[in-house]
Write a structure and sequence with these properties.
The complex is a heterodimer of chains A (198) and B (335). By secondary structure, chain A is an alpha+beta fold. Chain A has helices at 2-21, 63-67, 108-112, 138-141, 164-171, 176-193; strands spanning 46-48, 73-79, 91-99, 118-120, 135-136. Classes of the chains: A alpha+beta (198), B mainly alpha (335). The structure holds iron/sulfur cluster (2 copies).
Amino acid sequence: MRKRLFNVGAILQGLSITFGFMFKKRPTIEYPSVKKQHAPRFHGLHELRRYGDAKERCIGCELCSSACPANAITVIGAENTPEDRKSPGERYAARYEIDELRCIFCGLCEEACPTDAIVLTPRFEMADYRRGSFIYSKDRLLVPPDAGVGAAPDDRPGGIPSDLGRVAEIKSTTDVEEGYSATHRGEILKTERRGLAG
Amino acid sequence: MDSALAVLNAAPLWLVVTIKSALLLLVVVTTFAYAMLAERKVMGWMQLRPGPNRVGPWGLMQPASDAAKLILKEDLTPSTADPLIYKLAPFISLLTAFSVYAIIPFGAGSQGTWAIGNVDAGILFLMAISSLGVYGISLGGWASGSKYPLLGSVRATAQMISYELAMSLSFIGVLILAGTTSLDGIVSAQARLWFCIPQAVGFVIYVITAVAETNRTPFDLVEAETELVGGFHTEYSGLRFGSFFIAEYVNMLTVSCIATLLFLGGWNAPFGLTMVPGVLWFVAKVATFMFFYIWLRATLPRLRYDRLMAFGWKVLLPVATLNLIVTAVVVAVRG
Ligand code: SF4
Ligand code: SF4
């Protein structure tokens, strides 16, 4: 009987706890309208940077591609010609594609790159309706010529970049079909070159 | 308000009843909608969440969007179901839930009480109708033709019958004190002292059994999603599920109204605060009771079934009987 009475006490105690919780501060971040501040080195969507003279940093060396544990990067390099120099080096990336669905955002590509060309930005809003649109090619990865050079992770002030909208804008112009076939072609080319093709 | 009532009283009876019913139906359905929203909000706050807040300002349009969603859902009937009873059951629940409001008075003016019908044996009518409510649940579960709903409906029947006894006994204590079975009379008898004080034990018993009768946590073994998927309404979808859902909330509202009428003094103002109209007091008391329901749900886990039964028969029923005897003796001795 005593034990039963104590149980009633426990119920009342429980009720008082839930009542108190009603007035506590809620930790909810109302996401689309309020965005969380991430760590300055947050690993999000990639970006291909440029030099101050608008030349691409990437020299098509494929080191990022080899470093990638998820095999998410396809690079097909091409020679620069004296008339049309895309990058300061001998070669540049004719195609550069990252499958963001395969990517595990480990940042190894960033570490492998000898020219600091590929970096991970804090952008994280990549949701889309079709699988194909997660294959980001140069048109979406490369910093547009008029948008500066892109920030190296070390000089990033942190938080969400103010140009989040820019990515969405570029995203909508991508041809999904082309994205698919390009990656597919890239895989074949790579396999052929490694002498692995049947 | 009273002049409007006078106009109403001069009109033919069928017209008056129709208008009153339509109005009341509107009020009850709206209350249901916002009770549901309030439940989700309050439970959210108690769990450190904001609750629904995307549809309209503060989520106030959430009930409308939920209704639209339920209407657009496909109405499925399992091939093993008994089609007629399966389709009828939700409406039995709904009908019994709503018909109680035919006699519940919400306030009193100089032209009489604010109710559709003023029945002399009001409390008997209440008990009779609310007992019928179990048919909707048990028929629905039985006619679904699958095992979880069947278990749910068997539980519902056993639980509602066991707790109805203690509930009726707690009513009788009030009846003895008031000396009348009309709800109007019971409220007038509480003008000086609310029955929740002389009938404190009865009030506690009523609160517990009311939670059990409406199948709400911690007595929601009828639904018990962890063990019975959805209990009696597992197979229901769309508007038929919606009917059960509405019935559950309207029943909550009903037992809150009954608690207010029988134990909390109905529309009588506490501490002589008569400048606030009685109907507002009624609403405030019902709202407090509804809040208590939600509060309980956010706090207590579900009882084990055998303990639920043991509690009903071995604790509530004897205590309710004892309370009844003591009340009767005290009333008899004091004349
Ligand atoms: S972040 Fe990691 S997984 Fe993603 S592309 Fe770079 S190396 Fe590959
Ligand atoms: S991004 Fe860097 S590592 Fe990758 S191909 Fe270009 S230069 Fe080489």
